[in-house]
Specification:
This protein is α/β, with parallel strands linked by helices. It has one domain: Spore Coat Polysaccharide Biosynthesis Protein SpsA, Chain A, CATH 3.90.550. The protein has a seven-stranded mixed sheet, sandwiched between helices. Strands 6-9 form a two-stranded parallel sheet. The chain is globular, with a radius of gyration of 17 Å. The termini are far apart.
């Protein structure tokens, strides 16, 4: 059996309002943007009926692989599970509420083909656009990214925390990722830089979800980001 070139990794948790539309839209856009030789791996921790919807969808889309987990241990853990189960040469993380635009996937894939080992997307660099992001989350996100640039001096990415990332599967596996929550985006970025991998950052448009509730809670995630920054800082120096 021939392995796909690209694995799209999608973590899900209680997304029954939007998951059918999101998955259907992703597969429609594969045709629209000529994305071929691809598998979609959904790592699902849901208990609200999302899991039943995904089972039905997996019978409709032959390239959709669903991994159900009995216990939710966080979005980072789900992403790591998806990476472990990827068959592709390249991987791209895509969130189930689809705030990022899948039309960027072909250009991200092309950069990986040309030799970049990691493609980071930025919501904050020139050429990007954000729609509907709450002010307090925008402020916290910008502060977190600024703190990382100050702490690590030479690291000049604009959006360390974005989860919309592309990478060579073999290289991301070498990072020994351990984050269980949203701080996995930061962990991937800093560990890849520390290892000296070839990295490029590209601007993307981002749009707030249209239904359901965001799983990123500042009260929970802010301490996780702080711990991750400190751990990586002392580990780096």
């Amino acid at each position: 059996m021939q392995m796909p070139e690209l694995s799209i990794i999608i973590p899900t948790f209680n997304e029954k309002e939007i998951i059918k539309g999101s998955i259907s839209r992703i597969f429609r856009n594969f045709k629209k943007y000529n994305i071929k030789d691809v598998e979609v791996i959904v790592v699902d921790d849901s208990k609200d009926g999302t899991e039943k919807i995904l089972e039905k969808l997996s019978r409709s889309y032959k390239d959709l692989k669903v991994i159900h987990r009995q216990k939710s241990t966080g979005v980072g853990s789900a992403i790591r599970e998806g990476i472990r189960n990827s068959s592709g040469k390249y991987g791209i993380i895509f969130m189930s509420d689809a705030p990022d635009d899948i039309r960027y996937v072909p250009s991200m894939l092309e950069k990986l083909r040309k030799g970049y080992e990691f493609v980071h997307t930025s919501r904050f660099m020139k050429g990007s656009k954000i729609e509907g992001y709450p002010f307090i989350k925008t402020l916290a996100n910008r502060l977190a990214n600024y703190s990382v640039r100050v702490a690590f001096l030479r690291f000049d990415l604009k959006d360390f925390t974005s989860l919309f990332k592309g990478f060579k599967i073999e290289k991301v596996k070498e990072l020994s990722l351990e984050a269980n929550e949203f701080d996995i985006g930061l962990e991937i970025a800093l560990k890849a830089i520390r290892k000296g991998y070839k990295i490029v950052e590209v601007p993307v448009n981002w749009k707030e979800r249209e239904a359901g509730k965001s799983k990123l809670k500042l009260s929970k995630q802010a301490p996780q980001y702080a711990k991750r920054i400190l751990k990586l800082f002392f580990g780096y120096w």
